[in-house]
TrEMBL record:
Domain of life: Eukaryota
InterPro entries: GPCR_Rhodpsn, GPCR_Rhodpsn_7TM, HCARs
Name of the protein in its database record: G-protein coupled receptors family 1 profile domain-containing protein
GO CC terms, sorted: membrane
Membrane topology designation: Multi-pass membrane protein
Presence of keyword tRNA-binding: no
Membrane-spanning intervals of the chain: 20-44, 56-75, 95-115, 136-156, 176-198, 218-237
């Protein structure tokens, strides 16, 4: 039997994984209050279920980030111990399931928000399904329902190390499906996001008269989503591809390094729970003003003072 570094559940470099632990703890400390303040506004101030349909998608994006935050302390704890996973398979698989679910939901709702803005500014004459509140609720429910079976492959097979980089030749169909589940939600939405960004930008260039403010805001929003997407999800996807390649080619030393890089870039991907609130603010001027007036009222006073 060939030894694979990605089957090893202990950290290759304890100092490096202690650093990863520190990164995740900082992400958790910064993101938890931020997301709690955001979810409070959506529920108690905006009453998202009665308001604009776009707020329904934004609220679901907050839920996805909360799921991620539940997992971070557990994952960080084992990294600090010099382990890549929990010895408890149920806990390990549950954390992995939640991480996959968060990743899929974040990507799905970021993409939906961008498509919604694209349809509004590029095809204003077409009836936008995302603008109908009841349909927005239905779409959100469908996203979560579809994500559940797609996330199950992360728990289907037992393997020595409870990490998606572990593969066993005995379960090749399951492993192939798992990799498709990992890569497809990055590649296809990214193509859609880039398409939306290009079309909205072209629309802005063509509009020489009239109000260009809405178009400029839409361009900025979609480009921001592409940047958040690229920064959070592409590095981990590329590092995973490299890991799979060196694993197949049976290069033990390279695989050991690739495993550590992959784990580190997965820590980087968790930054989406910090960057998503920027998307909320740019998606809705009302939300931005509400957040500032509720939590940072001195900024509102400073703005009023400047105007007067």
């Amino acid at each position: 039997m060939v030894y694979h570094a990605s089957d090893n559940c202990t950290a290759g470099s304890k100092n490096l994984y202690t650093f990863y632990f520190s990164v995740m703890i900082v992400e958790f400390i910064l993101a938890l209050p931020l997301n709690l303040t955001v979810i409070y506004l959506f529920i108690f101030k905006l009453k998202f279920w009665k308001n604009k349909s776009n707020n329904i998608f934004l609220f679901n994006l907050v839920l996805a980030d909360i799921l991620l935050l539940i997992c971070l302390p557990v994952r960080a704890y084992y990294f600090q111990r010099g382990e890549r996973r929990s010895n408890n398979d149920v806990l390990c698989n549950s954390v992995l399931f939640m991480l996959f679910l968060n990743r899929g939901a974040s990507i799905a709702f970021l993409t939906i928000i961008s498509i919604d803005r694209f349809l509004s500014v590029v095809h204003p004459g077409i009836k936008n399904p995302f603008k109908i509140r009841k349909r927005s609720v239905l779409i959100s429910v469908l996203v979560w329902v579809l994500l559940l079976p797609l996330t199950i492959p992360s728990m289907l097979s037992t393997f020595e190390c409870c990490d998606t980089s572990s593969n066993s030749t005995e379960n090749i169909p399951t492993e192939v499906f798992r990799e498709l589940v990992f890569f497809t939600p990055v590649l296809i939405p990214f193509i859609i996001l880039v398409y939306c960004a290009v079309r909205i930008t072209n629309r802005l260039k063509q509009k020489t008269v009239g109000d260009r403010t809405k178009l400029k805001r839409a361009v900025f929003l979609v480009i921001l989503v592409v940047l958040v997407f690229s920064f959070c999800f592409w590095p981990s996807a590329i590092s995973r591809l490299v890991l799979l390649v060196v694993r197949v080619q049976e290069l033990p030393r390279a695989e050991e390094i690739a495993v550590q890089v992959y784990d580190g870039l997965m820590c980087l991907s968790y930054l989406d729970c910090l960057l998503d609130p920027i998307v909320y603010c740019l998606s809705s001027t009302k939300f931005k003003n509400l957040y500032i007036s509720t939590y940072l009222p001195f900024l509102m006073k400073a703005q009023h003072a400047e105007h007067h």
